[in-house]
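Notes, p. 3: input format for complexes.
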Amino acid sequence: MNMSDAPQQLLAIDDDPQTLMLISAALEQDGLEILTDGDVEAGYVTFLRVRPRIVLLDLAMGSMRGMELLERMIHADPGANVILTSAHYSAESAVEAIQKGACDYLTKPLDIKRLRDRVAGLIAEAETRRKTLSLDQELLEACQFEGIVSRSPLMLEVFAKIRRVAPHFKTALVTGATGTGKELVARALHRLSPATKDRFVACNCSALVESLVESELFGYVKGAFTGANQDRPGLFESADGGTLFLDEIGDLSPGTQAKLLRVLQDHQVRRVGSTVRRPVDLRVIAATNRDLRTMVREGTFREDLYYRLAMVEIALPRLEDRREDLPLLQRYFVERFAAEYKRQIAGLTRRAQSRMATYAWPGNIRELENVIGNACMMADGRFIDINDLPERLRELQKDYPLTDEALFSLQEAQRRHIVRVLERVGGNKLRAARILGVGRNTIYKLLSRMKLEEQNISA
Ligand SMILES: Nc1ncnc2c1ncn2[C@@H]1O[C@H](COP(=O)(O)OP(=O)(O)OP(=O)(O)O)[C@@H](O)[C@H]1O
Ligand SMILES: [Mg+2]
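Output follows (459 residues plus magnesium ion):
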């Protein structure tokens, strides 16, 4: 359904019929569909049924306080815009309302002009949000390469390289931290290669039992060892004509490394126990999250094998180094899991988004995928909110409560935020600068200014 075609709905809940009439009269002309309810319970039922974008809610009504209803509404639909109204203004309840997710607090008697302006503002905001959502959608479609989602310059280089080497390569090495998409890249290389057969055989080298590695990779003949009751081809032969993916190549023993190198050079395999060499024609893609160059220096990985593999090397950046991809990936995974779980989930609340934006994502895209997958299962409204995120993200930098002591200046907020980010990245100023989206000079300037201020305070 196109949201712009649906009439905008506003629900007013108030036990005073006159206020309800006033609100209806005041807002009707703005092309809104106005729904009214005279009590809290009926109002909540209407809210759940209609899911109006805007709610006007009276704070003091009968048995359940407006504040409780506000909480229930925001819990059910964090995207709802709830404006509280009250005849008795208190700074305390205004702060509480905003903290609980209300978007405004108006005093009674209602200032009609102010009310209309505010509602018009919310409608305009919803429209912009809808537009950016569909823009995001277009962007997402434009930023996919063989199922790999990204718009970061680092990844665009990777895409270009895949396109360039796929038609010709025989061996390739894909490196990157855990969860950065190494297997995805390997599959893309395979799909774009002129492999004669659509065979992609994946082998996790770290899961191979040392004594069986050779027979797994190269096969064996009947009687080669106890239990070898018949001839069996190995993974190289199974992948013949296609691609063999050797994952976690850094975990291969030196002996196996030597045999692997031999096959890569000769394009022939010899089954264990056989003297016959069989020709194989395939592409080999190796992957690792270890630093093979260091392993070569330390003597745990063969230099000649490394150079053979690294003729084509594709290095994947961490998610931290391509934060601009977060919104795209969030959208991609929300769509995927919402469809998979058959749930109506439109996206993430701004709070959840900003919480995710400050997290370090050590498990990279796989971790993000899991977080969003779980959240899509947990969320009970249309939007994923902070409560749907795992503890490590919820715990992160808890929103400071907006008590009177917490009402400080923007400059102070900036200072505290910088300090927090610096603590989080272990004082690494370059990383902090990147997270904060400022240049490294800016961060040095900010820091020296903060230092000066501290001196002023202590002086
Ligand atoms: N750019 C991306 N766009 C969409 N999905 C991605 C992207 N990168 C990774 N994924 C998804 O994240 C998960 C992890 O990717 P993949 O298995 O390729 O990572 P990996 O580098 O092999 O990880 P590991 O080192 O843990 O084996 C997969 O489900 C994959 O589909
Ligand atoms: Mg992998």
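Residues 148-150, 176, 178-184, 289, 332, 365-366, 369 surround adenosine-5'-triphosphate (ligand 1) (CB under 6 Å).
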